[in-house]
Amino acid sequence: MNEIKLVQVVIAIDGKQLFTGCGLGLKQCDENHPCPVHHQFKKIRNELESMLRNTTIKEMAEGVGTGLSFFKTINSILCKAKF
């Protein structure tokens, strides 16, 4: 578990669409027929993929353990909700 990369989690849950899809959600968008934001979105998409490939679950947990980062838990959301 220490070496599981975040990209593995994303792909297992959502598939590879995040890394290949159009920024505007168009079905036909590629290098030959780009949408208006294709080239800008491609840069962002590639940076996101790189971050996910280079970050492990262990690294995330260490940040939470040291207090440098946090997750908002379902319990804290439910406690604040007004029913």
How is the biggest beta sheet arranged? Answer: none
First-last Cα distance: 38 Å
| Radius of gyration over all CA atoms, rounded | 17 Å
Proportion of beta-strand residues: under 5%
Number of strands: 0
Q: Which class of secondary structure composition applies to the elements?
A: mainly alpha
Low-confidence stretches: none
Average pLDDT across residues?
A: 84
Q: What does this protein structure show overall?
A:
The protein has 83 residues and is mostly helical. 55% of the residues lie in helices and 0% in strands. It has helices at residues 6-14, 17-20, 38-53, 57-66, 74-80. Helix 1 packs across helix 3 (38-53). The longest helix has 16 residues, at 38-53. The radius of gyration is 17 Å and the shape is elongated.
Brief account:
The chain has helices at residues 6-14, 17-20, 38-53, 57-66, 74-80. The chain is mostly helical and 83 residues long.
Sequence-ordered SSE layout with sheet pairings:
Blueprint (H helix, E strand, L loop, with lengths): L5 H9 L2 H4 L17 H16 L3 H10 L7 H7 L3
Helix pairs in contact: 1-3
Keyphrases for this structure?
0% strand, mainly alpha, 83 residues
